[in-house]
Amino acid sequence: MNNKLKVCIVIPAYNEAEVIKDIVKDINDAMKKTAYSYEVVVVNDGSKDNTSTQAKKGGAKLINHILNSGAGGATATGLSYANQNGFDFAVTMDADGQHLSRDVIRGLDTAKQQGNDLLIGSRLVDNKGMSRVKILGNKGLSLITFALFGVNVTDSQSGLRVFSKQALQGLRWKTSGYEFCSEMLWRAKQLKLNIAEYPITAVYTEYSKSKGQNNWNAINIVKSLVRRRLIEAFE
Amino acid sequence: MPIILLALFNIITQYKLRHITLKRLQHQFALWLIILVVLICSFPVYNLLSGNPVFDSSEFSLFDIFQTTAIVVIIYALNRQRQKIEQNEITIRDLHQELSIKMSQEGFKK
Q1: What is the pTM of this model?
Q2: A205 phi and psi, to 5 degrees?
Q3: Of A56, A209, B29, B72, which alpha carbon lies 20 to 30 A from A25's?
């Protein structure tokens, strides 16, 4: 009988043909050396380029979204796949190459040891390479997440997250854009899941800088989160 | 008054039939009770406020009462519609999600 823990690496991707193959290959190579039984799943969120072909070439299983659903929708699909297929852990990581495979493995080991349900890779413990504007934006969003939902984390917008089986079974959110990162923390708190953070190194290339969110988008995120909080206060 | 009593009765029926949650029952009950209190207290409130020049106006006419009630009911109806739209959005998203996973899993087998 195979007693290896089953891990699903979920990579939501939208128009990432340029880098997705290398990212999948890199995580595949790193995971092969571990004791985990794993699958790398790319959720192609209705990309207009050949992200799906490149992801397959890298060796990923592919879930194609017929319509573009946003980062929140694509992540939900990936985690739902992991839940339906009985994975013990799932990890989400960004498709722009800013996360290192060694941080993914370290996150899995940490979550397993500490018994965390939701472990967030924080880029702000060591924010080397991150621009001041981005640091300010991310810290601001973390502060707003705390003010609205009472969840105190240093990096509420991090895409590198480890989910336990319990989190996979229970976690659902309503927003589909980038605001899902904060909403997910709120839902996890409502479910009384064990939330923790660990420091990670984010790699900023010209490509990942061009793909990341800008601070103007943060305004939209805040608007959406405030609306969501108010709506649910009256439901 | 009969409209409010009817509304309260309807809310309780919906709750008993498990069409609405306890939280929703509490909110709707509170909403209609506020309307009821406003209607019952309109004259004492008018008497209280008439001494204050800021609120110096004629007392509530029957039309005013209808208008205020109508505004509250419209806001309530709008909120209901928003909730239904949101529920439909979630259903569509779940459907899209399931379709994508099922179609991809068929692709894995090939």
Answers
A1: 0.78
A2: -100, 170
A3: A209
